[in-house]
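User: Hi! I'm working on a homework problem where we have to compare a predicted structure to a textbook description. Could you give me the structure for the chain below?
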Amino acid sequence: MGAVVADDGPSGVKAPDGGWGWAVLFGCFIITGFSYAFPKAVSVFFKELIREFGIGYSDTAWISSILLAMLYGTGPLCSVCVNRFGCRPVMLVGGLFASMGMVIASFCTSIVQIYLTAGVITGLGLALNFQPSLIMLNRYFDKRRPLANGLSAAGSPVFLCALSPLGQILQHEYGWRGGFLILGGMLLNCCVCGALMRPLEPPKKSDTTKEPAEKKAKKKLLDFSVFKDGGFVIYTLAASIMVLGLFVPPVFVVSYAKDLGYQDTKAAFLLTILGFIDIFARPVCGMVAGLKWVRPRCVYLFSFAMIFNGFTDLMGSMSVDYGGLVVFCIFFGISYGMVGALQFEVLMAIVGTQKFSSAIGLVLLAEAMAVLIGPPSAGKLLDVTRRYMFVFIIAGIEVTTSALVLALGNFFCIKKKSEPHTKEAAAEREELNKSEDKTPEDAKVDSIEVEQFLKDEPEKNGEVVTNPETCV
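Assistant: Happy to help. Predicted structure tokens:
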């Protein structure tokens, strides 16, 4: 789940909706894949870490939780960095941080050291890549933005399909230390993606337009006025509740299968199934969200996606064999893909393009608190009950509750709030139309006055003398 900064880029630049934007989209695809798939993919190493350090499920779950918390909670920090240095330099540094964290983690001797390296350092590096890439994507696409968001979000399931079995192979061949080291080398590809983020060039301005631009007040680093928007508050509340349970099933489904007595490779294959379904769900949902009738109602489509996801968790809690887990992963992949494709599009529809950069950073900061609690609390529940059923039930209830908050809040608050704006816009259009209607009449009056002036006072007008100035 989409980051961000107060740096809106050069004003007056139209989104190309293509061209180099496709290269930017490819970079976003890679970055999104690493950012969202990595916290889930490292879960294949949890069994090894439990055996080596003598810890519980809740202790290992903190690794994924810290990764996601850093990805979400560093929104304001990324805003400051990008506003000061630009998207490309920040992403290059972020790629180095992400790689360095995993490399150092391969030499750790305690779980706390892994929290600091694989969790904090790698999480910060991924955040410094993910958030600027999302900003660049929204600068390069406008009309095709829902489709672009869906395609870039598809990077998460694609990488999940690849990283999960790859992690299993690396663990089998090289152990968890060798696996962490190789994954750290792979994360250097984030630097390559950062190099693709070419900033849009502003149009050349004449000398007359430079002075007002220089006098223009500097934009706020973070615009807290978005909290005055009831729609934004409702969205933030719903999203925070949602992420409490959204990331829990992918983190625990592999361990669930292993507890049922299935082989490690077969258990890891569940994430591949989930990711494969998710690959197609995100672009398709992006295309549907871009339809003329659907786009104004994306909030309700997003609410449906969350209800679908929560209901899938509740049904998945009843799985007692591998077949049941496969069915769960199929439906979870569909609903999870819909949520991933719509979350940023819905937020932009609520707050608008101008405030999106501040709004997304603040939303992610609020979600970070929930992400930090979600998987560890689920792991603690598992340690106490030793049953995965309760973990999946709690996750389903949380996601379903968030859907109801968003849908009902939108129906009673956001929809009613939009009516005054519509009336104001209609009034403005009427005034513009009236002024346009008056323009031809005014022009006629002016021409009549000029003709009358020429007829009444010909002696004052005289003849036009041909000289260089009058010729020009």
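For your comparison, note the following. The radius of gyration is 28 Å. Residues 43 and 252 are 8 Å apart (CA to CA). Good luck with the assignment!
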